[in-house]
């Protein structure tokens, strides 16, 4: 059979356990005693007044010596905690503001980008309009030239019509001259034939009388 190890604290634990039980039973018996409870209450109140008096004296001495008291330290700690909470809240607000500024800057950059794109588009449209205007001016100039040429053509057409009319009149005169020439020729022929006829008739008449 194996030997059990010697535990030097075993007896001490048993002793403290017995002592704890005895003290618990003693305190339990005292707590059941009304006189003890009253006495304890009076002692507790006296101790409380004594502690308050010591506390007041400490505060008076601390104020006189310009030293912080426990209450001051407590208030300072409370104020420090409140300040830290406010700082945390301010930091959170600052972060929110930074996020807001970042979002606003992003929106501004997008807006500026849209403005730049719109400006480029407007410039392109303006260039196209200028180009179209130049072409329109060129077309207008060409139209004016064409109108002038057409006007000149109309004048030439009128002159040609006048020439045609004059040519027609000249042709009519030419025809009249030809007719006059023919009539003159016929008149000359008839004029030439009349003496011959008279001569023949005269000769015939002379021959008749001679028989």
Describe the sheet with the most strands: none
Q: How helical, in percent, are the residues?
A: over 70%
pLDDT average, as an integer? Answer: 78
Report the strand count: 0
General form: rod-shaped
Distance between the termini: 227 Å
As residue ranges, the low-confidence spans are none
Q: Radius of gyration, rounded?
A: 75 Å
Q: What sequence of helices (H) and strands (E) makes up the elements?
A: HHH
Total of helices:
3
The structural class is mainly alpha
Proportion of residues in extended strands = under 5%
What brief labels describe this structure?
211 residues, mainly alpha, 3 helices, 93% helix
What does this 3D model show about the protein?
It comes from Mesobacillus maritimus. This is Polyhydroxyalkanoate biosynthesis repressor PhaR. The protein is mainly α and about 210 residues long. The protein has a domain at about 10-65. It is built from 3 helices and no strands. It has helices at about 10-30, 35-65, 70-210. The model has no long low-confidence stretch (mean pLDDT about 80).
Helix-strand layout with pairing:
Layout lengths: L7 H24 L2 H31 L5 H141 L1
Protein name: Polyhydroxyalkanoate biosynthesis repressor PhaR
Organism: Mesobacillus maritimus
